[in-house]
Each structure stands twice: as structure tokens, then as C-alpha cells.
């Protein structure tokens, strides 16, 4: 398994799509987590016990905004929530891996280094970009303010620390053609 990561706005999802175009499967941890918190009934019960009934809206769907506001400045609550969600995602990932036939599989996750998941990987691949570019991308994509994006970035591991421990680094500071070329080069090196 190859761990694929990058901070918010780095372009890791774009790189993941390029990896798929090269014929390798990618497990999207964040997307699967969003599905699991809505589909897994026992998980729903545990999340409601932790955060209250408002963690889910009137349609029974996970209220990401409510949850984010509740845990954003409460590290203990965030750790408890992660302690509920991350094991369920790990089980889902293991089931997904068992269904794959390619010799290389990629796990895309924003918190690869923060959760020390890189220790379970054969290699780690970091997608990075200059902070000002990342901020602009997220502001444009998610309609967030500069301060909102900056607050998110401040809660993530600093890029310099990720660069120091990553096995492979893709710099997403130029254009899509360059990004695709770098991705293909890294996959060739890993193979």
C-alpha cells in the first residue's frame, strides 16, 4: 500500500485521479468516512452519544457543519470522534484491499502522517504546494474566507515536517501537465 497525502488545497485528489488513470486503484479515506458515518447505524449511535442528537439532521444525515463547529476548538472531543470513525474506516479499507487485484494500491488520506498511518505503508507520497496557492484554491473551491482556510491549515502538520518524512514528493505549483508528469514519474519509481 502506498499512502497518498497532502494538506488542504494541495491537489492530492487530482493526483489520485491521475494515479487511477495509470491503472492503479485509490481508496479515498475522506469520502469513505463521509459515507460510513451515514450508513453505519452503530457508528451513528456512538457519534450521537458523544456529540448529541444534532450531530445528525432531521433526515438522519451527518451534519458536518455542526460537528465541525463542535470539535474544531476542542481537541479532546475531536480525538474521541476520531476514535470512533477511524477504526471503522480502517475496517472498510481492509475490506476494499481484499477485493483489489493490482500489486499497488493507494490510500488517499489527509492525515497520513498525523495518524502515523505512513508506518503501515510501503511508501508515502506527499502532494504539496505553496501556502498562498493552497489558500486561494480552497477559497475558490469551498467559498471559504482567507482566515477560515488559514485556521484549517494551522491545525494540520506543517508542510516542512511532511516534506521531511515523505518518501516521494510531488510539487503542485505549476500546471496540470506538470502535475500529471510528476505523478507518472513517481509511480514508475515506486514500481
TrEMBL record:
Q: Top-level EC class, please?
A: transferase
Keyword line: ATP-binding, Coenzyme A biosynthesis, Cytoplasm, Kinase, Nucleotide-binding, Transferase
Which InterPro entries is this protein grouped with? Depp_CoAkinase, P-loop_NTPase
Identify the main location: cytoplasm
Write down the chemical reaction(s) this protein catalyses.
3'-dephospho-CoA + ATP = ADP + CoA + H(+)
Please name the pathway: Cofactor biosynthesis; coenzyme A biosynthesis; CoA from (R)-pantothenate: step 5/5
In alphabetical order, the GO MF annotations are:
ATP binding; dephospho-CoA kinase activity
Checking Pfam families in the record gives:
CoaE
- What this protein is called in its record is Dephospho-CoA kinase
Originating species:
Chryseobacterium piperi
Amino acid at each position: 500500500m502506498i499512502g497518498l497525502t497532502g494538506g488542504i488545497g494541495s491537489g492530492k485528489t487530482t493526483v489520485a485521479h491521475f494515479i487511477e488513470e495509470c491503472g492503479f486503484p485509490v481508496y479515498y479515506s475522506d469520502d469513505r468516512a463521509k459515507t460510513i458515518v451515514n450508513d453505519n447505524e452503530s457508528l451513528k449511535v456512538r457519534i450521537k452519544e458523544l456529540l448529541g442528537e444534532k450531530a445528525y439532521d432531521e433526515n438522519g444525515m451527518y451534519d458536518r457543519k455542526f460537528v465541525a463547529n463542535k470539535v474544531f476548538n476542542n481537541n479532546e472531543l475531536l480525538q474521541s470522534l476520531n476514535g470512533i470513525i477511524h477504526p471503522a474506516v480502517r475496517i472498510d479499507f481492509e475490506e476494499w484491499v481484499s477485493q483489489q487485484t493490482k500489486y499497488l494500491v493507494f490510500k488517499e488520506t489527509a492525515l497520513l502522517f498525523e495518524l502515523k498511518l505512513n508506518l503501515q505503508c510501503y511508501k508515502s507520497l506527499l502532494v504539496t504546494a505553496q501556502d498562498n496557492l493552497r489558500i486561494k484554491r480552497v477559497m475558490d473551491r469551498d467559498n471559504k474566507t482567507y482566515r477560515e482556510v488559514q485556521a484549517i491549515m494551522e491545525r494540520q502538520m506543517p508542510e516542512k515536517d511532511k516534506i521531511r518524512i515523505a518518501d516521494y514528493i510531488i510539487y503542485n505549483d505549476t500546471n496540470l501537465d506538470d502535475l500529471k508528469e510528476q505523478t507518472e514519474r513517481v509511480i514508475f519509481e515506486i514500481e
